[in-house]
User: Fold these one by one.
Assistant:
Number 1:
Amino acid sequence: MLFQQFLLEKQYNEWIKETTLISYRFYFSLLPLSGMSPDDTTTLTVRNFRTLLASEGYNRKWSPATYNTARKCFNSYCTYLVRDKLLESNPFDTITKMREPQKLPKSLSVDQVKTLKYAITHLFNPNTFLWLRDICIFQTMLYTWIRRKELLDLKPSDLDLATLTIAIRNGKGGKGRIVPVCNQLIPVLSEYLRILHAEHSDPLFLFPSKNNFNLWIRNLRNVFEKVKEKIDFPLSPHRLRHTFATELVRNDLDIFNIASVLGHASVKTTQIYLTANTETINKKISSLNLYAF
């Protein structure tokens, strides 16, 4: 009962994704293996949690990232119990995170972007609403770096071509922000809006289904799978996000502005793109006249 109340609060107060809820349910299904129950707070001890994380981490060959995800789920629940005075102290005050190796973001090269644009233009049935919608989805993700859930939640009123902005009403963590629209995207969006209103007199979403319903993540995944059949390099919504963020760094956009538009809570998250941008860094260093007297 306590655990279900916790999940409800997470879902409706913090706007966490369904995939995050699935993670919570999975990790908490492991508690009985160490004699714990989420609804029996007397079993939620430091010793029991340490035993669980050590044994399951070893048996399931958890990576540091997976270990930390499990720890984060358990810590969040214990924090909730302490807040409501159902647990005296949080066991995870003394259970630290594992150090994770830094992974550089993987982005598309300029040639791969060109290949992708050609693929999406020639893959779908031309001159149909769904054809233009799917092209516009790819172009919007490539030129606005918004997350996939943010894209699927967009309403037509969120797009303002007069000010060249897109309003993200419910971003990660329930936060909103304003995203600028690049010039390259304006003709595509303008034509798409015209066809959208011809297809649906009162569209509920900017990228609706054929029946004017909200697209699901799996619908977006299916579109990506079709495109991936026509290209020879990895592709995902997040890789498109990495690609544009890297492109902004290459064009010397201020790192703090990039963090704001990407919706990063901390600029430290954005700084990894500076590390990944070795090509531009190498060119700049090679052109410097160092130690000139």
Number 2:
Amino acid sequence: MTIVRTSCFPRAAFLLPAVALLLATPAVTAAETTPDALHQALETKQRIEQRVASQLSRDSSAQHARPAAAAHGAHGTAAAPAHAAPTTALAHGEPAAGAHAAETDVWSRLLAGNRRFASGRTRVRAVMAQRAALVAGQHPEAVVLACADSRVSPELLFDQSLGDLFVVRAAGNVEDPIILGSMEYAVEHLHAKLIVVLGHGSCGAVKAALSGDEMPSPNLVALVDKIRPTVQRLNACFEGAELVERGAKANARHTAIEVMTNSKILREAVEKGHLKIVSGFYDLTTGLVTPLE
């Protein structure tokens, strides 16, 4: 049997545990292709790939750094000793200040999830295990007020899972006392940190408000009357798909303002820095969500 010295192959010292983990993972046979088995196999594969990619990246960085350090020492400045301690943050495996600031922001994480969705690289999740864990309670970080349109599912388009989002939906993503009460519950009792008002392309409620047509029922009249004052002025400047898109964006922005204006609880949460209210626009064609100013 040939013995390979890992000191001769620096990467091998790291890769061997990863390979061992892969070999120790039971194969998923046709008789065992349950959702949990598939999720476990995929998660194991992803962990191994992430560990290998991380190590290879560190090896590459070290190889580029060593020649520079040697050259610096050759010009009269002593090179740092091999055992020199790294900075405090890196020594404890923590990111340097600001390194992952964007990832700690709930809105940024949702937008990152949307990019995964739009590119077809959504995450694999052990939904059955998550469902069991959520029996005890929910702690969503974000509230999404979205249109009831069947093409606009917040959990999917933000690549989120069970328990991640508190979703409130109504045609035209409008607000009223019931919608506001739902959001107040999420912020006051569940401590959600973000409210997203999400408009979208080709919104039927916005189209109806822009059309000026008579609605066939009092309920539809109430819905359209909620949107029409915000969008009707756009008729003089735009037409077709651009008119509808601009109307949907204007409506989302207006609703975000109305949410804070008409709810004391939400307004005070914003003033205290406990809550952020934003608006966005979902493009049906690209799958991307664009933040609205």
Number 3:
Amino acid sequence: MPLPRSTTLGAIRVAREAAAVIRRSAQPRLPRFRAAPADLATATDLRVQKLVRSWLKATHADHAVVGAEFGGLAEMDLSRPTWFVDPVDGTTNLVRGIPHCACSLAFWDGQRLVLGVVADVARRRLYWAEAGRGAYEGHRRLRASPVRRLDRAVLATGFPPTRAFDPDDNLAEFSSVFRRSRDVRRTGSAAIDLAWVAAGRLDCYWEQRCGPWHWAAGVLIVREAGGKATTYAGLEWHPGDADLVASNGPVHTALIESFIDARAGAGFGVRPPQSVSTAAPRSAPGATPSEASAPSAGC
């Protein structure tokens, strides 16, 4: 069943309003820590959360809402229509006055991702996609880059907030590609990184143990721009999976192979796909569990 146009337009409107709230907010002085010192929340997160929650309550009261400020993964049941909401993606940037953060909204209809919206706060740009209808920056259709060689690819990544105490910290993956690629960026906003993969500014983004609210909107935007989004095991990414590789497509296999080899060399193996609530489990031949495979609240 096609997504009602009013739902898409409403999500775009509330994402723009959220971005305006973030722009008007003073630089936070007293951030709140979640599970780790690298995982922050601020009063601005809570203001945007209230804005989005009010819209959802008024328009989609029967839908579930999942996000770091909405109960986290404990609230996720993929058999239900669900919104994945990240009020401020890039909170550390916001706290330090770095003008690079986004508001991210995605809608899962009970079977698949059907809507993704990412509002780039500082640049006043809006990225969005509907399943089967393409990806856009405003009114401009997006296409992932045609780069086919890893040595010509510009990549982006991030590091998990658990890195202070968990040795599975993305350094093995990073080390496997930073000399083989043109360059690697670390911008601090997964949602914008994914939007830039869709726009062809980046050729790949990868990361691990982020909550699905960080990734879901950007994943759909990448796919609708002609790119790919999988787990490290090469399986199609679903909300709840603990790692993500999103690329333009042509460089995807080389990246997956590099990450698998790097993780094996570091003694980590490849995580199996997550089995979340009523979502059907997917098998990954040869995958081995990680001691810390669950997504974190923040990234």
Number 4:
Amino acid sequence: MIENVFFDSDLLGDDFFALYALIRNKDIHLCGITSFGRRVRAIERAKMAQVFLDMHNAASVDIVPGADKPMMLDVRKSCTFCDEQMKWLRNEWDADRRYRSVLLADESAASYLVRKARELGSITLLCTGPLTNIALAILLDSDFASHVKDLYFMGGVHAIQGNSSPVSESNVRNDPEAASIVFRSIPGIHVIPYDITMQVLLTGEEAAAIKDEFFSQTALSCCRSHECRHGGSSIMPMHDYLAYLALADESIISYSNYDISIETSDSICRGMMVLSSPDRLCDMYGIAVDVGKARQHLASDFEVRL
């Protein structure tokens, strides 16, 4: 049993694949969810997650909205994909009517994480968005990092071109200051980078074959977004679901040990993940993924033939 797990996420698209797998895995005790906003506010994302949990009989999991913007960067303009996803979810789930006002509105995500870490003594973090909430928790309590047993982070890129700049991946580049604080403060982070998440894919045909309509339509939307942004085939990279698998099945990903830092000063390389020979308790950077085993998990979790 993996105890005291907290899911920190921007809660759109493939994040819901990771969330569903978390709540259905009987060997993982999911305590709470914290959301990060930016172009769609954190509380709006949290509302969607709350309706989702209610629909899947997991209403006991805490949901706390977090930061709405990076620590230093300006918030970018609206994202068409994000707007379309939120509009579709509201209509699909009748979310405004079904939403229960039980969010911990008087407590920030950072203070919630600090409190739970103190109460539980040791926590595990699965992070599939910018690390803003985690960095704020570190700044709020100097002892917070010592309570983090494991941190799994979907983000960063090294061996291939990034999706946010030629040298950076979006979860890091969207708040590099936060990522820098987290990597300086918490040793032994498991990094599931863009390098390998781009190897675990759903095609448009496979997305259409998923039995559950919500996951099928979400996957098809992600396929269309990827085709529009990057051209080429209609595919959905399973970025955040693979981060979940790294937590759930340690045999899925092979790692190399590095001392990882984040570039924050150079405007061109801002958000770049720098891998150095370790001189301390090092981080673990994913270098290979068992694609076949990952797809077996995916097929089982979402009842689709791959």
